[in-house]
Amino acid sequence: MVGRPNTGKSALFNRLARKRVAIVFDQPGVTRDRVTREIALRDRRVMLVDTGGIAFDKHVTHDPLDSETRAQAELAVEDSAVCVIVVDARAGITPLDTEVIRRVRESGVPCVIAANKCDRGEDDHLAVEFERFGLPVYAISAEHGRGMDELIGAIVAKLPLATPEEAASRPLRVAIVGRPNAGKSSYINRLLNAPRVIVSSIPGTTRDAVEVPFAIGTGPEARRYMLVDTAG
Q: DSSP letter string over 82-101?
């Protein structure tokens, strides 16, 4: 799930996960890292990914790690089978929405638009203007659960065919814990040999518990783990 700051991506993530996994707060820039959760959508097991709000101006979020947050969101899009672009239907189309949608479409990843904050039936007309982008648009309310069946159906319909690996056992969860700024995120990035989680010298950079799939070996004999990076 991607979008500009404060459109309700984390609220939608928690609604689909049926659990409060990502921090939700009415302030732009709360989510930074990619937050993941393995869930079931209908008969499919998927890895749901929440991302920080994409902004191209640090003054939008007042976050010194804005460029790192944007990079994580862009990597999430590249790694995804389906992308849900979350917009604020009440606010209407903003220049930032337009830019985010343009970049996601250029990635070639199948995508839909979730027009959030349509809390009542009479709000659904607010989603119509987003149809100008030529993508499927679904009026939803992450807070109240409206429109979830239609959105889930659209996501599942765009998923690739299931693979044998999907039926594999759940991975062993390994939590990485410690005081602030001890290097937990750096340790995970070293294991993965990739910049999967944001690292900086600012204490408190990690806010959510970030789950990262990790495997030793390949194929059916691979040992699968879920590394959990935690806030200090």
A: SEEEEEETTT---HHHHHHH
